[in-house]
Amino acid sequence: MAKITSHKYTVFFNLVSILFFVLMVTRVESGKLFLCLQDVQVNKGDICYAIAQQYGLTLDTFYSYNPNVNCDDLSIGQYLCVDGVWVDF
């Protein structure tokens, strides 16, 4: 008969996995952690300027949310952050 793993260990493992994922998709800069609160998926024909305008963002804010984005080479299906917060830690 197979041994059943404790529910507590399963919950702990899942929480650690979720925390690891969250930390992977956030940025840390000088004591601050950036959390993206809303993202959008790039569709055919989308450009950064139009996405920023659609969500009421200036281009500077859009770029601060997406520092590694190459607006000349967006990929269909790529996710871009359109709302986020910096959290002190």
From TrEMBL:
Q: Which residues cross the membrane?
A: none
UniProt keywords (A-Z) are: Chitin-binding, Virulence
Q: Which domain of life is it from?
A: Eukaryota
The keyword RNA-binding belongs to this UniProt entry's keyword annotation: no
The family database entries (Pfam families) matched by this protein are listed as: LysM (PF01476)
Task: Name the Gene Ontology molecular function terms of this record.
Answer: chitin binding
- Residue ranges annotated for the LysM domain, each copy included: 38-82
Does this UniProt record's set of keywords contain Transport?
A: no
PANTHER family according to UniProt: AM15, PEPTIDOGLYCAN-BINDING LYSIN DOMAIN
Question: What name appears for this protein in its UniProt entry?
Answer: LysM domain-containing protein
